[in-house]
Design a protein that fits this description.
Blueprint (H helix, E strand, L loop, with lengths): L2 E6 L5 H12 L2 E3 L1 H11 L3 H9 L4 H4 L2 H18 L4 E4 L3 H4 L6 E7 L2 H12 L3 H23 L11 E4 L5 H12 L8 H22 L9 E5 L2 E5 L1 E2 L2 H12 L6 E4 L2 E2 H6 L1
Parallel strand pairs: 1-3, 1-4, 2-3, 4-5, 7-9, 8-10
Antiparallel strand pairs: 6-7
């Protein structure tokens, strides 16, 4: 069955559509589990992981290595959960991370601002100004992260296979549209699409493993994987870092062979 990846605006009813669609399809509904698993596996604070993908970054944070590390941890878990059969993932950049996966359906749920404000007021029993502030904070944070990390606009319709406006489309109709796509032939998994997802997941897992290790955490290594064969590219300072990256990559489950094309800059300068 296809993967369903969703993004939704606050107050759009997207979470409810996702939960009901998952129930009717017999899918696992995934959202908080990604943050929880990333925090457990990489010994990171859950709140910091959420902030790295949902809150508008400041200048110093953009320059921070911690910021980049937390994003890589979350991405690795998105791919890991996507490898499961019959999953619906809400948020966590899943729609853009899974963009190249042929059996991933990417859905955006939105509604006009005034509609969302009214819904948030009713749901949280708060005033209009507070509801508007919460919505704007959420929208601006996610939009800023998309721009900075992916150089994309969060509301770009070309990023999605289905856009649902819940001002005019009911929850039931939205679920029906999503289910129709899930059962359509063009989104069914193929050998190629499954292999591509496996390769993306393995490369992401290696990147996360490198960021989790003190010896390699500051390095930004380009990692590509194909059928368990891994290519490492980029620059490191020393031979020790060169060897550490290769050692960590080889230790990730699923890796069959590593081709290390990293350039150790200190050795290069000595030649």
């Amino acid at each position: 069955m296809p993967i369903v990846a969703m993004t939704r605006e606050m107050g759009s009813l997207g979470t409810f559509i996702g939960m009901e669609a998952a129930r009717q399809l017999g899918y696992e509904f995934i959202r908080q589990e990604i943050i929880q698993e990333a925090a457990r596996e990489y010994h990171a604070a859950e709140q910091k992981l959420i902030e790295a993908i949902e809150q508008k970054p400041g200048f110093l944070e953009i320059m921070s290595e911690t910021f980049r590390r937390h994003q890589i941890f979350v991405a690795a878990e998105v791919y890991d959960f996507a490898l499961r059969d019959r999953v619906l993932i809400v948020g966590r950049w899943s729609t853009v991370l899974l963009r190249s996966v042929g059996h991933a359906i990417r859905v955006r749920v939105s509604a006009p601002l005034e509609t969302r404000v009214r819904r948030v007021m009713e749901r949280l029993s708060i005033g209009e100004d507070q509801a508007l502030s919460l919505i704007r904070q959420s929208d601006e944070g996610i939009r800023a992260r998309f721009r900075h990390v992916f150089d994309q606009e969060w509301d770009n319709p070309l990023l999605y296979d289905l856009s649902i406006n819940t001002e005019r489309i009911s929850l039931e109709a939205g679920v029906a549209q999503l289910k129709a796509l899930a059962n359509s032939p063009e989104f069914q998994p193929t050998r190629q699409s499954l292999e591509h997802l496996t390769d993306l997941a393995l490369a992401a897992k290696i990147k996360a493993a490198l960021k989790a290790e003190e010896a390699t955490t500051r390095l930004n290594v380009e990692v590509t994987a194909s059928g368990g064969e891994v290519l490492l590219q980029g620059t490191v300072d020393s031979r020790e870092e060169h060897q550490a990256v290769e050692r960590i990559a080889k230790g990730v489950p699923g890796v069959r062979r590593v081709e290390n094309q990293l350039i150790a800059m200190k050795e290069r300068r000595l030649r």
